[in-house]
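Dissemination and training. As part of the outreach component of the grant, students in the summer workshop were shown how a complex can be specified as a set of sequence lines and then modelled as a single object. The example used during the hands-on session is reproduced here so that future cohorts can follow it. Participants entered these lines:
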Amino acid sequence: MTGPQTDFPAARASTPRLLEVDDLYVEFHTRDGIAKVINGVSYHLDPGETLAVLGESGSGKSVTAQTIMGILDIPPGKVTGGRILYQDRDLLKMSKEERRQIRGQEIAMIFQDALSALNPVFTVGNQISETLRKRKGLSKSDATRRAVELMDLVKIPGARARIKDYPHQFSGGMRQRVMIAMALALDPKVLIADEPTTALDVTVQAQIMDLLADLRRDLNMGMILITHDLGVVADVADRIAVMYAGRIVEHADVHALYKKPAHPYTEGLLDSIPRLDSKGAELATIKGLPPNLMKPPTGCAFNPRCKYAKDICVTDVPPLLQLGDGRTSACHFAKELLDGRL
Amino acid sequence: MFRYIVRRLLQGVLTFFGATLIVFALMFAGGGDPIQALAGEKPVTPQQRAALTEQFHLNAGFFQRYLYFLKDLFTGNLTTYTGRSVFDSIGDALVLTGKIALIALLFAMIVGVSFGIIAALRRGGVFDNTTLVLTLVVIGIPSIVLAPLAQYLFAIKWKIFPVIYTPDQPWTSLILPGLVLGSLSLATAMRLTRASFGDNLRADYVRTATSKGLKQGRVIGVHVLRNSLIPIVTFLGVELGNLMGGAIITESVFNVPGVGFKLYKAIGLDDGPTVVSIVSLLVVIYIVANLIVDVLYAVLDPRIRYE
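and obtained this result:
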C-alpha cells in the first residue's frame, strides 16, 4: 500500500490532466484511535469525461471528494500523504484563500440530500445567485436574472416564479435541480456529484442522471460521479473506479468492467444487481461487513469476505496490477479472474 | 398570518380573564380582614366597619365582587385602600422594572450570544471550558447569594456602581441590579447559543456554502447565524416576560421599588386590588411577548407558516 501508484504512467507526462488524485492518504483521528480511511487512492479526470467512483458506505469515496473540495473536517480528518493536482497545481499545497478561489469556480460539488444541503431559511434564488453576487460582483438584478437562466438550464418549470420559493417548497427532484443550478453558477470545469440520486425515487433518479449527463456534455465539464449503485452509472460513466476500504481495488473502462470484472469485490457488486431475467431467484449479496478501518485485516482488506481468498491474500497486500488499456486491479488473482480460471 | 394573530389575541383575552379570576379567587380565599389590615393597629368602630364594608362591597358574593373589580379595572377607578390609584403605583414600578429588565436582556443578548458563538467556534478550547464552568456556577448560585455578593464586590469594595437604587441616578444605579438579574439569563443564553450554533456549524448546508467558495465570515455570519438565531430569539422573548415579572430578591437587595418588590409588599398587606392588578398586567405582558416571539419565528424560519 505504499509508493506512488499511477494509472497511466506513460500518458501523465505528456498531457496535463484536468484533475488528478495521486496516492492520497487520509486518516481520521478519533477518541477510539486512528482510522485510515484513504490508503493510497489515485485517479484522474480529463475534460468532458465522467468518472464513476463506486463503493459501499465507508469505502472512502466521499472522503476523497471532500478532500479534493477542501471541505473535509480537519480535525478529525488529516491528509497524511499524496497530491491532488488541478491543472497541474497541487491543491494540498495551496493557501486557504487559493483553495477557496478554486471551490465553486473551478471545482463544484453537489450533495446527496438536497433538503439538508440547501439552507432552509434562504430562497433558492438567493442561494443560486449568492456566488454571482459575492464572487463575481454581479448586481442583485443581474444575479437574479442569471439565476433564472440557471434554473431554466436545469429544467425547473416556471423558474421566474419559483425563484422566491424556499427549498422546502420544492419536490425532491426539483431540489436536486436547484442544487445543480447552484453548483453550475460559476461555470466550473469539474463537477463532483456525491450520490446525487440516492435520496430520490427511481423515476426521478433517471431524470436527474440524464440531466447531469446532458449538462456534462453541453458544458464540457469533467464529472466525478460518486455512487454505491452500479445500476445508475452504466449509461453515464466513461470509466469506473471501485473503492474498498480506502483503496481503489479496480479501475476500468465502463464496458470492460461490466463485461468481466477483474476484482472479486466488483464481481460481488455486479452479482448483487437485481436482474429481470432472474426473477424469483434469491438476490446475491456480498457476505460479511465492511472492514473496521481502525483495525483493517492483514493482507488484502477484502479477504475476510472473498470467496476466492487464499493464504497469500491474508499475508500480502496485493499490488495494483496493470491489465492493459488503463485497467488495474488490486487482486493477487486478477488475471486468473479475468480469464475465468478461478 | 393576520388571522393567526387575531386568533392568538382572542385566546389571550380568554387567558387574561382566566388568570385574573384565579388570582382574585386566591386572594379571596386567603381570608384575613382587609379592614383591620387597612386600619393597622388602630381599633375600628362598628360604624366605620359598616361604612367600609359598604364602600368596598365586602358583603357581596364572590362573582359580584369579581365583576366590581373588573369594572373598576377597565374604567381606571381601581384604588388601593389608601385611595391612591393602583395604576399610578404600578406604573412607577413598571418603569423601574422595565429598565432593569432591559439592561438584563441586553446584557444577556449581547454578551451571552457572542460568547456562545465564540465557544461554539472553539469547542473544547480554553474559552469554551472556562465559560462552561462559569455559566454552571452562575446557574447554580441562587440570587439571594449572588445579589448581595455583587453588591458587596462591585459597589462597596470596588465602588464601580452605586450601592442601592436612588431616584437621582435613574439609570446608573439600576445597572448593577440589571446585570445581576441578567446573569442567569446570560448563562442560559450562552449555553443555548453554543449548542444551537454548534449544531448548525456541522449542518450539511454549511458544507454546501463552503463548497461554493464563500468566505468563512459569510458562511458563519450569514448562513450559520441566521439558522442559530431561531431558538435564541424564542428564549430571549420568553425571558423578557420573566424579567418583567420583577425579581423580588434582587429588587429588595438594591432597594428598587419595582414590580416584584410591590407585589411582595401588597401580598403582605392583603392589598387585593394591587396584587390582582399586577398579576393581570404580567399576564398581558406574557401574552404579548409570546405572541411577538411566535410571529418572529415565522419571520426567521420560512418553514413555519401559521394558518
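The interface with chain A takes residues 203-205, 207-215, 218, 223, 226-227, 300-303 of chain B (CB under 8 Å). Students were then asked to discuss how this feature might be tested experimentally.
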